């Protein structure tokens, strides 16, 4: 399973403009991290997706969370029990 | 709540269905539309801002985030910090049809 996940993360890294990517489980444990996104941020990324779920607790939908700065965007999306974060450059390099 | 220079510009945000203006400690200064007196949403957004700020300092980037967005299929929440105030705008997520020529 880890090899499979590692392959997916590696594939995501090859996408134009992607600087880093990370996957975490529902407890905030890092399952894999590549590039600019550190595994240390897994807890905070999971917490953000958990809080976003509380924003509209009646909604079944898991929203996308975007944290934008001048140079880059961090996108977070929960799918089932897995939370994924992708760090992308604003101007693709 | 009352209209002030702070909220006058927020009223002009296109496709907006509600807004919140909060102080840094989470007190709601102004609210309108679907977010009027929505203390629950204000509390969750405050926690999200707190985590997002810590997440930023945890990376090599030193600048604070410019905008935090929570995007659903039909609508989105956009959060920004300016002048020690937290501005939240809830907008409908317009799906534009592609232009055919």
UniProtKB/TrEMBL annotation, chain A:
Source organism of this protein record: Branchiostoma lanceolatum
Swiss-Prot/TrEMBL keywords: Cytoplasm, Lysosome
Keyword Cytoplasm: yes
Gene encoding the protein: LAMTOR5
The UniProt record lists the keyword Cytoplasm: yes
A GO BP annotation: positive regulation of TORC1 signaling
Pfam families assigned to the protein according to its UniProt record, in alphabetical order: LAMTOR5
Subcellular location(s) of the protein: Cytoplasm; Lysosome
Name the record gives this protein: Ragulator complex protein LAMTOR5
GO terms of molecular function: guanyl-nucleotide exchange factor activity
GO cellular component: lysosome; Ragulator complex
PANTHER family, A to Z: RAGULATOR COMPLEX PROTEIN LAMTOR5
Gene3D superfamilies: Dynein light chain 2a, cytoplasmic
Primary location group: cytoplasm
Family to which the UniProt record says this protein belongs: Belongs to the LAMTOR5 family.
UniProtKB/TrEMBL annotation, chain B:
Family, per entry: Belongs to the LAMTOR4 family.
Official protein name in the record: Ragulator complex protein LAMTOR4
Location of the protein in the cell: Lysosome
Annotated function: As part of the Ragulator complex it is involved in amino acid sensing and activation of mTORC1, a signaling complex promoting cell growth in response to growth factors, energy levels, and amino acids. Activated by amino acids through a mechanism involving the lysosomal V-ATPase, the Ragulator plays a dual role for the small GTPases Rag (RagA/RRAGA, RagB/RRAGB, RagC/RRAGC and/or RagD/RRAGD): it (1) acts as a guanine nucleotide exchange factor (GEF), activating the small GTPases Rag and (2) mediates recruitment of Rag GTPases to the lysosome membrane.
GO cellular component term of the entry, any: Ragulator complex
Molecular function in Gene Ontology: guanyl-nucleotide exchange factor activity
Database matches in SUPFAM superfamilies: Roadblock/LC7 domain
Keywords: Lysosome
Main location as per UniProt: other
Keyword Metal-binding set for record: no
Gene: LAMTOR4
């Amino acid at each position: 399973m880890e090899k499979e996940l590692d392959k997916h993360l590696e594939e995501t890294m090859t996408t134009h403009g992607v600087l880093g990517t990370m996957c975490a489980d529902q407890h905030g444990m890092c399952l894999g991290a590549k590039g600019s996104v550190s595994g240390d941020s897994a807890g905070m990324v999971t917490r953000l997706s958990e809080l976003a779920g509380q924003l509209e607790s009646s909604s079944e939908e898991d929203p996308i969370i975007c944290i934008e700065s001048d140079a880059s965007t961090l996108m977070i999306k929960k799918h089932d029990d897995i939370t994924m974060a992708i760090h992308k450059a604003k101007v693709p390099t | 709540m009352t209209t002030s220079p702070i909220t006058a510009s927020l009223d002009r945000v296109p496709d907006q269905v509600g807004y919140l203006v909060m102080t840094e400690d989470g007190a709601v200064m102004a609210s309108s539309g679907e977010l009027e007196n929505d203390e629950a949403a204000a509390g969750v957004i405050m926690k999200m801002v707190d985590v997002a700020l810590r997440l930023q300092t945890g990376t090599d980037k030193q600048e604070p985030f410019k905008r935090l967005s929570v995007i659903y299929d039909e609508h989105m929440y956009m959060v920004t910090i300016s002048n020690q105030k937290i501005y939240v705008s809830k907008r409908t997520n317009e799906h534009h049809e592609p232009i055919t020529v």
